[in-house]
Amino acid sequence: MSVGGKPWLQPHWDWHVAVNFLTGGAGSGLILVAAGGALAGQALALPAWIGLLLVAGGLAQVSLHLGRPWRGLSVLVNPGTSWMAREAWVAGPLLGVTALAALFDSAVLGLLAGLLGVAFLYCQARILKESRGIPAWREPHIVPLLVATGLTEGLALYLLVALGAGWNAVLVPAGAVLLAALVVRFITWRGYRNALQGNAPQAALAVLNRADGPFTGVGHAVPFLLLLVAAGVPSAQLPLAALAALAALLAGWGLKFAIVTRAGYNQGFAIMHTPARGAGTGGVGSKPGW
Amino acid sequence: MTRYVMVADLERCVGCQTCTASCKHTNATAPGVQWRKVLDMEVGDYPDVRRAFVPVGCMHCADPPCMHVCPSTATKQRADGLVTIDYDLCIGCTYCAVACPYQARYMVEEPAQAYRKGSMRSEQQREDPARLGVAQKCTFCSDRIDYGAEHGLTPGIDPEATPACVNSCIASALQFGDIEDPQSNVSQLLATHKHFRMHEELGTEPGFYYLWENQ
Q: Which of A66, A120, B136, B213 is the most exposed place for a label (fewest CB within 10 A)?
């Protein structure tokens, strides 16, 4: 009989929690981008409301996952060391200020909401990083990856909103910033994967290896090419930009979903030595699954 | 200062799982929940194969990641090193469970017994509804340690003040005591045996030592 030596997929955080990382990241990223757009004179309300709904929806979803949801406000008790508590502390002001900014279409409040959005995004990234029982999450490179992913998703959503609302003036600058964000996200993804080699269970690495193709191809190469083509073919600009934004958004969500729900293999067990038996001596250790 | 730790002598452990059964009996944990269990690990390839039985559970780390991430301060650390969970504060977010590198934490949502026909006597007496929907783990039988402190007993020496798994061990492979006391049973064992702690590279300073060879 062999019991539990190898790492196994953590059973505690399922899709309920993953959704918070998906919508919270994209929503907070969108609020920041919307604040940037407002400073440039663009309307703030529509993207701000969408960002707010995404963040609030993610938090509502994750609250359903709590074992004792009616004690939910206790999540605020320990901001001294817990990034989950810090996320909760930032979430309230983020939602409130974003709502006020959207109501009054205020660029100044929008800027404050954008900064709170960055803080919220950073808290989310640190929540995963402090999960020291899960090697694929605790790798420090996950922080820039999640921040870059959230901002890229926010940009992609903003581009979609701009396309839907007919804000033609922002299409070119938003597309250009999205191009740059794709490059940054790709670099952070490579950095994360390189850092993880040899530092995570084989099963977790296999999940990320499988995610690499779709994330790099659909999430980066395709939108990059579509945006470049859109720049040169004005007649097809709108559908190409929409497709590019959609691909960048969905690939980011797909990657985060995979990291939370499928790459979350735990540490497993290990021994540094096997014991001496009888008059013999001890032997080498074992770290199954690594 | 007192710092309670557990010592598992891998040379002695025979993998009988009596400690596992004893823990379940004492704490009436639900099916699938094992605050204490013994891994059966095979190392190497035929014909050079070795086998080790490795007791695991909460390591009561000196720097417990579960406590740092807990948003509600339900997880705390006592002065004697024991890591505790306040079931009345825990919100059941299971952040502690993914922060623990020893897979020591569980959460049970619904009451569950070992047999379909109803609760065993141990379950009737010791099942704790406060444990539903919150994180749970090995307590190092803190209630027994506290009882010992109140009655002048020595944890690890006097059975009434010693964790149930240690009391039940048929090979005396599991030992418990104060590592800050150089005369204690655990200090003496660590002084006379080569030892390691699991996943020490993660910096959690676990309070669970494994002996693997005499000095």
A: B213
- Residues in chain A, pLDDT under 70: 1-4
Residue ranges per structural domain of chain B: 4-214
CA atoms within 13 A on the CB side of B9: 21
How many CB pairs below 8 A link A and B? 179
ipTM of the complex: 0.95
Q: Which pLDDT tens digit goes with each residue over B119-172?
A: 999 899 998 999 999 999 999 999 999 999 999 999 999 999 999 999 999 999
Disruptive mutation site among B35, B89, B91, B213 for chain A (greatest number of A CBs within 10 Å) = B91
Q: Which of B181, B206, B109, B96 is nearest to A84 (CA)?
A: B96
**Chain A contact for B69 (CB, 8 A cutoff):** yes
Which fold, B4-214? Alpha-Beta Plaits (3.30.70)
CATH label, A15-66+75-268, candidates 3.30.70.330, 3.30.420.40, 1.10.340.30, 1.20.1630.10: 1.20.1630.10
Q: Name the H helices within chain B.
A: 18-27, 65-69, 95-99, 121-126, 142-150, 164-168, 185-192
The structural domains of chain A, with segments of one domain joined by +, span 15-66+75-268
